[in-house]
């Protein structure tokens, strides 16, 4: 008579196929515990083929005296089942008190294959599943792999996926495992609704979140794919947006998602309780640290009395104050903001409390997840290191910097207790992402014509944090190449070194009669003075030359057609121009290209060597699609550090965005420039050339001083001074889905370009002050003389009004403008319609 205990470790394949939950092994026959507790003479093993007998026996641990009690047998049985090596394990009692362990081994997997998967490659699925070729087959593991594959497809927006495992038995206790996938259609977000939003429209709030509604162009992006983690993150983005705009009591109560079987997609609804909008009623600074003046930190506050209560401004103020206190020797100072609401007046009294924090030091900084990026690239983003005082503001700044590197999908810095109570360990968890880009771009504009570009770039070259890019451009009127390299930390300082090598060729077109070739090299240094203020120093050296078709540079043709000179103009014995002729301005008056152009052509290649800098102030809320903030660029370049030309060029460009009513954004732009002569004469090529970049409705090079030669190409000469002002209102098309990315604009522009100071004569040719020279009535040099160049330089204010269509398309930003000039110069050239844009694919 035998007593035994039996556990069967497995699941039915049909349960796996229909998504049944994994259950514990079932089937047991119990024996008397007293019987099994007897002294065991030996343990016998049956049924094993690959697993050694001694390996199985090792799972049973006898107690003192070599006795194997009930607890030891139970523990051994569970341990054998948990190995996953066996389908079935039985423990029986033989004659003479012998323990018999009978096992049925799991098969070995011959191969793991996937069928029906088109959207996700085999390689990706292979890395995700636990079942591996030449590994042990486990039905529980197969069930887990099935659920994992389905989850991967759901993350990519395919919730109708079906995954069916199939087990094909092979000889010698081997099996093949096949996962058959029915991918189904993509499950997107069909609608996004907001409930309880009164201060901001649903159209505006859709700008804040990352989730997008499905539309005709959704196949080019992934924002419409339903992702529960993204929806949850959107709740925080909405909350932060309200807190930034004064709504201190806001709550995003819920983000409800519901699958609509008819639309085969999800409906997402955000429920919001806005509360009241608050302003800053009072601002105070308090300190509990002896001999520390709290009011000395007032200069580092970004919060002002009377302004909207802005949580981001409060957080940045805390960070700046805490860092400044640390610099002054108070390494453990902690700045804690407080707020006292006045519900009737809708104000918040903000108090910054400076206290002595716990004396905690950083024991170690441990990095996790950076398989490619070098450790020092990450550590240099910290302003603190091992052994320094723990400063939460500096840790938060380091986390923000690491995220801004754009090397990682996610970055999270947490703390763990150190070896003692005053020590902490910083844990930096990262998930790396691809940092290389290969793009083929194409575009068309009314200025440059058709254009194509191929570029390859790497933001984290060799894992060292270096940036490199190479691009080749070929177009209808513009061609060239460029090589760029950036070292963001020069000599371990937070100074960026950039090197640019470029070659550009601009061909003649309907706007200019000449072409230019430019070959240049420019090193630069970039400094971040503050988060909103940066400085760039640069040196530029480039060689430039003008190219002209033959018929625009001789003395025999006018606009490419034959010219029949009169006997008084050309001698009969050889066709040499007669400088004593009374026909006017001599050879160069027969037209074609303007005098400054042909003079530049005769000078050949010109070398320019210039030092310059750019100071940028940027408080925009979004650099790509701003709706609030200020962007100011001030640039100066001094040419004359060697080279053939010398000048001082100064340019300022300011843009101010502000939200108005009903999602309308106002834009005010002011720009100005000045070119000053230093030493040698100014070239025409160094002058400012303006058109729609200053006043829309005018052609490129369409405004400003212009050659008036009636037989020539009437080239734009440019000016040394310009100014411009624009007022624009950008508004969405409320009747279109937000995801289409279309909005309209109405605008008014005004500006002027004047004061040409380039060459007006060509003294070396003997063609100036000729007998019978006709004095200019437009720009006379002095009474009784004349100039070789007749041009218009009237200080007319150019102005226009127009409408525009702005499309943030998946193909890249596109803009269409139609502007009507209201005032213009006599010789200006207009272009009412303008289009520009491009794509990357």
Report on the architecture of this protein.
- The chain has a 16-stranded antiparallel beta barrel with strand order 17-18-19-20-21-22-23-26-27-28-29-31-32-34-35-36. A four-stranded mixed sheet has the order 1-3-4-2.
- With 841 residues, the chain is mostly beta strands.
- The longest helix has 17 residues, at 139-155.
- Mean pLDDT is 80; it is low at 1-41, 555-591 and 764-787.
- A hairpin with a 7-residue loop joins β20 and β21.
- The protein has twelve helices and 36 strands.
Q: How confident is the prediction overall: mean pLDDT?
A: 80
Strand elements, count? 36
Radius of gyration: 39 Å
**Beta fraction of the residues?**
35-45%
End-to-end C-alpha gap: 78 Å
Instruction: Record the strand order, biggest sheet.
Output: 17-18-19-20-21-22-23-26-27-28-29-31-32-34-35-36
Low-confidence stretches: 1-41, 555-591, 764-787
Helix content: 10-25%
Largest sheet: 16 strands, antiparallel, barrel
Number of helices: 12
Structural class: mainly beta
Shape: globular
């Amino acid at each position: 008579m035998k007593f035994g205990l039996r556990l069967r470790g497995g699941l039915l394949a049909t349960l796996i196929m229909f998504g049944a939950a994994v259950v514990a092994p079932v089937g047991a026959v119990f024996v008397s515990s007293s019987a099994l507790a007897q002294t065991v003479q030996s343990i016998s093993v049956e049924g094993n083929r690959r697993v050694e007998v001694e390996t199985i026996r090792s799972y049973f641990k006898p107690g003192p005296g070599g006795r194997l009690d009930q607890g030891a047998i139970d523990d051994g049985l569970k341990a054998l089942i948990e190995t996953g090596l066996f389908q079935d394990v039985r423990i029986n009692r033989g004659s003479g008190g012998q323990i018999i362990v009978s096992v049925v081994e799991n098969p070995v997997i011959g191969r793991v294959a996937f069928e029906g998967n088109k959207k996700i490659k085999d390689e990706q699925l292979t890395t995700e599943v636990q079942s591996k070729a030449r590994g042990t087959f486990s039905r529980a593991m197969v069930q887990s792999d099935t659920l994992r594959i389905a989850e991967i497809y759901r993350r990519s927006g395919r919730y109708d996926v079906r995954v069916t495992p199939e087990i094909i038995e092979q000889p010698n206790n081997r099996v093949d495992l096949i996962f058959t996938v029915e991918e189904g259609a993509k499950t997107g977000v069909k609608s996004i609704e907001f409930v309880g939003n009164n201060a901001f429209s649903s159209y505006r709030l859709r700008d804040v979140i990352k989730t997008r509604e499905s539309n005709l162009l959704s196949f080019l992006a992934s924002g419409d794919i339903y992702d529960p983690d993204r929806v949850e993150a959107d709740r925080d983005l909405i909350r932060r947006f309200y807190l930034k705009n004064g709504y201190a009591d806001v709550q995003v109560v819920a983000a409800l998602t519901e699958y609509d079987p008819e639309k085969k997609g999800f409906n997402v609804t955000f429920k919001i309780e806005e509360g009241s909008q608050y302003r800053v009623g009072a601002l105070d600074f308090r300190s509990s640290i002896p001999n520390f003046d709290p009011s000395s930190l007032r200069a580092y506050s970004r919060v002002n009395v009377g302004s909207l209560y802005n949580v981001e401004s409060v957080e940045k103020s805390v960070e700046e104050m805490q860092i400044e206190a640390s610099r002054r020797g108070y390494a453990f100072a902690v700045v804690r903001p407080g707020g006292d609401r006045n519900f009737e007046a809708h104000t918040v009294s903000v108090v910054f409390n400076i206290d002595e924090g716990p004396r905690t030091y950083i024991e170690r900084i441990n990095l996790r997840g950076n398989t490619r990026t070098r450790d020092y690239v990450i550590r240099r983003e910290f302003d603190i290191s091992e052994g320094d005082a723990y400063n939460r503001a500096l840790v938060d700044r380091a986390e923000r910097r690491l995220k801004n590197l754009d090397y990682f999908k996610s970055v999270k810095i947490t703390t763990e207790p150190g070896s003692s109570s005053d020590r902490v360990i910083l844990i930096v968890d990262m998930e790396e992402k691809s940092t290389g880009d290969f793009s083929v771009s194409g575009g068309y504009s009314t200025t440059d014509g058709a254009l194509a570009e191929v570029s390859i770039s790497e933001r984290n070259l060799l894992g060292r944090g270096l940036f490199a890019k190479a691009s080749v451009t070929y177009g209808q009127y513009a061609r060239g190449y460029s090589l760029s390299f950036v070292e963001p930390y020069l000599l371990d300082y937070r100074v960026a070194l950039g090197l640019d090598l470029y070659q550009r060729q601009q061909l003649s077109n309907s706007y200019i009669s000449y072409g230019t070739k430019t070959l240049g090299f420019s090193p630069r240094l970039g400094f971040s003075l503050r988060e909103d203020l940066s400085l760039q120093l640069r040196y530029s050296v480039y060689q430039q030359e003008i190219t002209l078709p033959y018929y625009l540079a001789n003395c025999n043709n006018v606009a490419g057609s034959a010219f029949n000179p009169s006997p008084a103009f050309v001698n009969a014995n050889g066709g040499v121009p007669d400088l004593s002729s009374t026909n006017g301005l001599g050879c160069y008056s027969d037209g074609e290209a303007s005098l400054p152009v042909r003079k530049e052509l005769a000078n050949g290649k010109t070398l320019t060597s210039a030092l310059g800098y750019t100071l940028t102030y940027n408080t925009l809320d979004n650099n790509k699609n701003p709706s609030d903030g200020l962007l100011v660029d001030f640039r100066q370049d001094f040419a004359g550090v060697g080279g053939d030309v010398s000048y001082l060029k100064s340019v300022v460009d300011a843009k101010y965005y502000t939200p108005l009513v009903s999602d309308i954004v106002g834009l005010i732009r002011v720009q100005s420039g000045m070119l000053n002569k230093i030493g040698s004469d100014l070239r025409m090529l160094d002058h400012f050339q303006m058109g729609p970049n200053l006043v829309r409705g005018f052609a490129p090079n369409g405004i400003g001083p212009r050659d008036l030669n009636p037989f020539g190409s009437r080239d734009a000469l440019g000016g040394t001074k310009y100014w411009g002002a624009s007022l624009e209102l950008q508004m969405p098309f409320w009747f279109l889905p937000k995801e289409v990315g279309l909005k309209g604009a109405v605008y008014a522009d005004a500006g002027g370009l004047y004061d040409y100071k380039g060459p007006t004569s060509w003294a070396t040719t003997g063609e100036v002050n000729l007998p019978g020279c006709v004095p200019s009535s437009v720009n006379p040099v002095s009474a009784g003389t004349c100039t070789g160049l007749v041009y218009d330089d009237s200080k007319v204010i150019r102005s226009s009004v127009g409408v525009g269509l702005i499309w943030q398309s998946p193909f890249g930003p596109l803009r269409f403008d139609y502007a009507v000039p209201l005032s213009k110069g006599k010789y200006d050239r207009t272009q009412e319609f303008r289009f520009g844009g491009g794509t990357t694919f």
